[in-house]
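Dear Dr. H.,

I hope your travels went smoothly. While you were away I took the liberty of generating a structure for the chain from your last submission, since the lab meeting agenda had it listed for discussion. I wanted you to have the full record in hand beforehand rather than looking at slides cold. The sequence, exactly as received, is reproduced here:
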Amino acid sequence: MATFNTFSLLPIVLTYFALLVETGISSHAQVSNEPPLDASTQPSLFEKHLKNCATKVYQPCGDEIFFSINFGNQTVGKECCFNLVNEVGKQCHDDMTKAILTSEDFRKSKTSILKRSAKVWDSCVSSLLNNNPQSADPNVFNYNSIDPNVFNFY
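The corresponding predicted structure, in token form, is as follows:
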């Protein structure tokens, strides 16, 4: 049963890592030169979704995000936080993390990876919301700059 599960997850993992390299997200991911187990099968909707998610990640940000989540040995900078929160989005962030967890190499660290994933997301959202209004990117909405009287309708 474990062998069957390993082989059924293998195409998903290979596709994900192929996306990392194909889109330039991670220069450290290796792709096998072997053909897929069943070349005639079409990618699933989830695999297509993951590919779409991967195309949203800026090339230099892929490594920062990947290593921050999976190994905890990097920090995601503000530019990459902007990319993650405003362009990749929470759903893609969570789904790409889940896809990585299908790999045997990362499955044993599932709890740590999920915690780091949540921490990266929360830290990025926090850093974008706490931007100094004078130096904030005009494309990032600063909730602290809202005048509370604007919503006073009475």
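Two observations you may find useful: The chain has one domain: 2-30+42-144. The mean pLDDT is 76.

With kind regards,
E. W.
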